[in-house]
Amino acid sequence: MLAALLLPSLLTAGTEPPAGAVKLNEPRVQYRADEASATRSPWIDANGWRMARDAGKTFVYHVKGEAAALAAAESFTYGAGALISADAPGAEAFGRMLQFLKTVPEVDLTPVADFGVVDDGSALDGELLNLLTRMNLLYKIEKNADRSFQVNVRLGTKEYPKEDARNPSVLAHKIRAQIGDENRSLRIYGSEVVVGRLLSGPDQARVFLLNYSGRPVLGLRVRVRGAYSKGELHAAGLADARVADWNQDGPATEFTVPELRAFAVIDLGR
Amino acid sequence: MLAGFEEIPSYKVVSHYPAAKNSEMPGPYRGIVARVHSKSVIHHERVDQASVDKMLSAGIKTLTGAKAEKEAWASFFSPSDVVGIKVNCSGAPRICASPEVVGGIVRNLLSVGVQPANIYIYERFLDQLTSVRYKRFVPEGVQIVAIETPRASLLGYDPKTYVDVSFFGEDDTRSNLARLVTERFTKIINVPNAKEHQAAGVTGCLKNLAYGDFSNVARSHMREQTNTLSFIGTLAAVEPLRSKCVLNIMDGIRAVWHGGPFSENKKYRFHPKTMMVGTDPVAIDRLLLDLIEEKRKAEGAPSLWDRSMDKIDRRAHLDFHKNTFIREPGHIEYAATNFGLGEYDRNRIKVTAVEV
Questions:
Q1: Is residue A37 predicted with pLDDT exceeding 50?
Q2: CA distance B336 to A186
Q3: Bridge partners of A198?
Q4: Do A193 and A221 belong together in one domain?
Q5: Given CB atoms, is A254 within the 8 Å cutoff of chain B?
Q6: Which residue of chain B is at minimal alpha-carbon distance from A217?
Q7: Does the ipTM exceed 0.85?
Q8: How far apart are CA B88 and CA B97, in angstroms?
């Protein structure tokens, strides 16, 4: 499946979204103090899994302020047709993001996945997909197990009992361990609030980075499996941004995004 | 599995920097510590600069055997050096590397020809660093810099030098070494405090270097468990940090016997009026263990080695009978045993005590 670049639209005031449109959450981060830890575990409200599950449908966001820009970037990242209902500041933020999205070059690339998930459409599967997305574990939603993957997750089987899925975090970490961090196609270091997506083709790849925090992330490090010699950074809100500290070593390529505001796209070439 | 310790996480160390012969910790004075005491160095929380200067002079001369102070400093530093002074400000301004001590170190560096602009007083976090007015104690041109500006920025860290480990399933498994260490400094002077630490047992030379020069280290603690046992030594042994840290000067003028490292409660602070000078971080930290353990015993607090779960309490910083985490004072021996970072055996540590 090729990923088309779909631009989101602003839903004009008083207009109803089309029947059957899938309503999405406001993309954001909720900081929840882990009562038993000195650190904080942020909770990301990300919609990528819903756009992956309901590919081809129309999606609708009801958001305010800068969240409209992130919503636009999120739907663009997943190649989903989205309508965004926003207040006046949100419409302005949307407009800025739309201008940026129009500058991102068209590419003809395929989404990268490290494993498959056989999705029965249940809430339990949904919870798992949601967590996998937030953990930057790249999956492909399947109707039947794809033998080209070493790991295929189907809840209710002996290997993935439904009881285990009641704690999706434990299950997600099990899947992560089965894949192995070294084998993951995309790793992100330096932030717990950035979600990535990866597309690839024979000679190039594209990384999408969505920052859900509302604050810039500085010095984000990205690791992509594969040997690439160059990278072009398109960063929303930043003119002439460039990737830094390029390192192609062994089976992977790494680089730093010096500043990530709400959204960036990095095009990698051989 | 590393020697003698169980359930150690799997660490991957990535560094392209080779060890520098003859300078990597524990350096030329393995197992040797100059311990200097001065009755007059602090009075009613006011530190006496003249006493500090005498302590520094006595400490460095005793360590090196040099007759003159300048000769002693010149055995470590040359005019072409770029020197980082790793202070500890995690409890600042209540307790920190005293500006009088840091100012004294800077004057000695200048005396052997190090340029002011090539002297850096540094710490991870700017807010902690600037809460101590080091600027008032050093000449114009000396640099006072934080690694992480603003907090959580990774730009000040070297993306190619790191320790990769997963403690609790966190997705960001890397802790990167500061660029100042890899790219700028030629030498480092480590200036820790003498503090109890609720996770590590004590925080001295090793912890100040390890958790003070790498990113993303707080992830090692969760609930009552910490991975400080193995993480501290692993970080401190990473090159080029290990080779560039040529001198440790523990500021024990003030100390903390409970509630460290932040020391919110002044009733847990005391005044050992001591400075320890050496190249061996393990030997100094071994003596620090004794210092804090003895004080806790005198105050009726549980041993640093007490691992009872019934004493675990999140509010332990307010109650010295409780512990926030299971402390890991064994991190010092671990660093000695597994990385050869110094001498842990108390019987093989030669302490020269000096009174000034």
A1: no
A2: 37
A3: A207
A4: yes
A5: yes
A6: B153
A7: yes
A8: 5
